[in-house]
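Notes from the 1:1 (GR / supervisor)

We went over the backlog. Supervisor wanted to see one worked example end to end before approving the batch request, so GR pasted a single chain during the call. The sequence is below; no edits were made to it. Supervisor asked that the structure be written out right there so they could see what the output format looks like.
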Amino acid sequence: MARVSVTGDAAYRTYEAYPVLGVGLGNYAFYFPQMMPDTPLSTSPELLRLLLPEGNRERLITPKNFYLRLLAETGPG
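Structure output shown during the call:
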C-alpha cells in the first residue's frame, strides 16, 4: 500500500489486524496509538497534540480518509 499518512497507515494496520469485522464503529481511536507506524513524531506536531492532550481536552483521532476508517472499523463489509 502506498503511504497515505500516519493516521491512514494506522487505519490500514488496524484493518490488517482485524480483517473480518473490524474493531467496531467509532473504535478506531482506541487502537490508533498501538497501530501507528514506527515514524518519528517530531515531524508531525499535530499527532503529538492528539496523543498527549493537555488537561481534559477531548480528542478526535480519525484517519482523514473515510474509506480507510470504514475499513478499519467494519472490515471489508
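Supervisor's comment: The radius of gyration is 12 Å.
Batch request approved.
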